[in-house]
## 1
Amino acid sequence: MISTQQDHIVLLVDTEFFENLPAWVTDNFTVTPGGYHDGQPSRNKLVIFADGSYLEFFNWYDTPPSLDNETLPMRFWGAKTPGLIDFAITDTTQSAEESVGVVNQRLSEGPDKDAGLGVKFGKPITGSRKKADGTEISWKVTRPEFSKGDKTPSEDLFVNGRIDVPFFCHDVTPRINRVPSLDKEKTTHPCGATGIAACEILVPKHLHTEYTNLYSKILGSEIKSVVGQSSHTLDLGVPQGSTRTTVVVRAAETEHDIKRLRERGVGLSDLVIAVESDSLGSGERRALGDGIASTIWLAKEM
């Protein structure tokens, strides 16, 4: 299996949020200007972590592109409502074509293949944006391509479009231009954040095993059960340093989770950020607030 790393988390925000960041953001994080994307009306701001990953505040400042425009991989976010919507993984040791080729091979082999969920990855598409200082950066995005498998959930569990697995993001220009993670001013945060501890993926209870197996093949990671919980953990690398992060595939069992599944669909539900903190005990975590902030948690760095 190949070695994949966490790349970034996408938090879709409206224009008011983007232009007037709420206190739960500014009180906890150092926000770095991103830029404007080429070919579509979108822009971003970043919260960059010392492990080389980042949280992206993504905003449409005008009408999103049509789903028919296959040259714009971000078009899938156009119909989504604000909140955590997607995340990217990368492989800093291989090209986009090599990484995705290996993953697609795993998804097409063996008795379980893609676990009957109808997932493979398409061809890498080049994206770019201009930073605030005028620097042009570019990357290749490879998004999943979906089909109707014998275990694919019904359409009502893909609210405003299907985004239940991550996409790949590989750098074309030097990664440090896109993610200035060596700049301590940018990676030092008031809350003590050091990196991404976990991404939680909420799935239907009856498809928990299938989604866990699917994620294992995409990430190239072994499955670890969480004792006493209906969840499985998959280990994932980070772009910088020796720390690790995880992806947790979690079955919707509580009323809160089932309601969330109906409202936002299968996929990324919560983000856990590792912090250096004496105010949190081992295994304890604290949400940053209400609304969108209730899905972003701080947990003591392990």
Note: The longest strand covers residues 193-204.
## 2
Amino acid sequence: MTFFRSTALFLAMSAPAFAADPEFTVFDWAGFEEPSIFQGYIDKYGQSPTYAFYGDDDEAFQKLASGFKADVAHPCSQMVSKYRDAGLIEPWDTSKIPAFDTIEARFLDSEVFKDDEGVWYIPTDWGATAIAYNTETVPAEDVSTLQVFVDPKYQGRTSLPDSADDVWALAYLATGTTDWTDVTDEQFQKAADWLRQAHQNVAAYWSDPSEQAQLMASGAVDIAWSWNDGVVYLQNDNYPVGFERAPKEGSSMFFCGYVNLKNGPGKEDKAYDYINAWLAPSAAKALLDTIGYGHTSTVAMDTIKDEPAVKDGLSETNAPILSQTPNSPEQRERQLAEFEKVKAGF
């Protein structure tokens, strides 16, 4: 699975698109073109959609805002308001999505996603962000708190994601904020100060789960703020990794899904066939095996509830959870700008 993911990331960097069905184009993260996730679409049309890839949410938005054409895109939750404000998307017709009502309510709990104008977002996949650590070099008691990331003992031995959303989720949690949708200036500054401390311990910022897993597997770092899929890669390689999802301050949950792009060049009906294939119960096992993520459909998740990867990385915890639902675009831009300063040493 690590090889597949790395290969997919290479393809994303070396080619603009993976051509297949010329009547439907998906703009997506590398790795999600795995056919088993949307097998129903292939069963109907005999081929995969055409895929174009991006490396992060902000890159995807900028490319679409600059005129790149696709039929659907796969942003994570905090980006949806930007797509709406820019007029890039239109509501979904949920009468054409029979499994829409099986999506767990918490994934639609925002007026950004669903309001009087319609449903703007179909959440499909989710994961956890928490502390990955080398169980042979890091005592379990050290990762009982997020303050491990500022512990001088681990200077030059930690890794954080090169993602403003993920590092701010960490910083807010570490400083006592579990809801980032209504952050005060004082809370922001407290988190920013903590993030500057954490930066002093960072050996490298990782840009994708395979890179994070490789940093740990090589021995370059002992602790990482990690998505659960990076942990799965390490487990598959028999690396001694723990995943602490219940430090006293809590952990984070992110989720992503599909938006219906305005004036897409392909056939609209195929967008609905694609989403329906994604929401099929069989997609859950394929998604878990390929990417390591959970499914937003309660019916689909029920088919994989006993899988070890679900029990170890996606199960409920008693610690606080910061859900990465949308905060205001202004706040997110502020976080982006501050994170760039932190990485630059300012």
Note: The chain is about 35% helix and 20% strand.
## 3
Amino acid sequence: MRRNATLDALRGYALVCIMLNHIPAGWARQFTLTNFAIYDAAELFVLLSGFLVGLVWVKVEAQSGRRAAQWRFLRRAGQVWLALVAGGVALALTSRGLFALDLGHTAIWSEYARWIVELPLAYVTALAVMWMQPNLLDVLALYVVLLAAAPAVVPLLLRWPLAFAAGSVALWMVAGPLNALLPNQREGNGLLFNPFAWQMLFFSGVAMGAFRHRFMPILRRHAGVLTTLAAGVTLYSLGMAVLWRFGPEGKRLADAMWHAVGVVDKWSLDLVRYTAIMAASWLVAVPLAPLMAWIAASAPGRALATIGRGGLVSFIACVLLSVVGDALGSNLGGAGTAHRAAVDLWVIAALWLVAEVWLNRRRGPVARACDRLPQATVGTVRKHSFQNGLK
């Protein structure tokens, strides 16, 4: 399947935002998504993940049948689960190493560093059965649950989309009590990211990816109205996020806007946050599509796309670099903006490098050289390489 550069860049942007948001002393965190909208990178990551599931599912099912699609995503759920366990171990060991170097940090709970040494088997078991989800990795635990459900649930969505949507909303409405039934180390039980609620955003993304060719021509007939509504919701979300910075008058207006929508809870996928991310999705996909394509084609956009294509490796790297960046940014007394900005740039560059190395791990020297040649010459180089037995 041909890669979509804009989607890859958005996924990379979501991972960079997740990383920077968890570096308390960071400078660049003031420019992440959460500063300009009522939702944040978690919603963006989950929605894009669902969208890509929808894209891939219909492609695989059309080529190889439904059973192949089901097995593909069941295997993917297993891969994400392994990444959750391995990432939890790596997170604890990283924290332990930083403490050994006298580099304190607050991005994650300090007990992980103790448990991995004093109670390693219990710690790994708690990760494996998902009784514990270390902070920064908790959205990955949500992803495991949603992907594991996909083989059984996506066929229902594809066959009865309207009934599925009604059921998804009904499940979201009773998500709180259901989540509390899940055994967990957290007080009150349940996953931090309530899977019974966040399924609505994830499967909205699946539907968008699977049905885009069917519903987009219909929606485009009403593009003017939809764009106006989406812009209104987005501006309201922007006002809630930024007006408090503009003096007492701005704060009073922001408070009134927040009061009008009530309590906005991230962990149970609040309707306000859901509406805001869906409105932004329309703006990005339709009126702002040319701008997004231009950004994705720029040098920063290509770097973000590389991070986005890194998948689980990029996610685990972004979590580990959050902790390292927190330690580096918080332990030099009197460090100013330049130091904090340098740490932010370093972790972003490191995240890009990890993704770049991972993506090119199986590429030979000729393949890498082709990337640097004009497109017209690539076929000739590959032909001669094949004839000479090169790989």
Note: The chain has a mean pLDDT of 91.
